[in-house]
Design a protein that fits this description.
The chain is mostly helical. It folds into 2 domains: 1-48; 51-136. The protein contains 5 helices and no strands. The chain starts with a helix and ends with a helix.
């Protein structure tokens, strides 16, 4: 009985080694395909990027003229951010309230997309800051 169990365990170990070896080989293949696909996707995204001059030329004149009004929102967003950060630093310890991590709300990742031009990247940054600051 004991030798039969030892034989079964040896076969299980051998099969596990075979599975791990096959997995390692397939993992290398999958990683190569993933890199190839990621490179192709980045190339396609850059190909579809609208240049800055073309973007401005295609924009509605009224949209371009109202952009400064929209971007003046930085001032209240910044003041709100400063107030909330100061408020947490001063009041929360007194009342024993745990502080909220600002980095959980202000996430700046969309401006790294390769198909965005400079204005679109700035808009993504501005939107992330405004929405994250409001949530914070």
């Amino acid at each position: 009985m004991r030798s039969h169990l030892d034989e079964l365990l040896a076969r299980i170990r051998a099969l596990q080694e075979d599975v791990e070896q096959e997995y390692s080989q397939q993992r290398g293949v999958w990683e190569a395909k993933r890199r190839e696909l990621a490179g192709e996707l980045a190339r396609q995204q850059r190909r579809h990027r609208v240049g800055l001059v073309r973007f401005l030329r295609q924009s509605n004149l009224l949209v371009v003229l109202t952009a400064p009004v929209i971007y003046f929102g930085w001032i209240p967003f910044l003041l709100m951010d400063l107030f909330v950060t100061t408020y947490q630093a001063v009041c929360f310890p007194i009342y024993g309230i745990p502080k909220v991590r600002r980095s959980d709300y202000l996430v700046f990742d969309r401006e790294d997309l390769p198909y965005l031009n400079a204005i679109e990247k700035f808009n993504c940054f501005y939107c992330s800051y405004g929405n994250g600051g409001a949530a914070y």
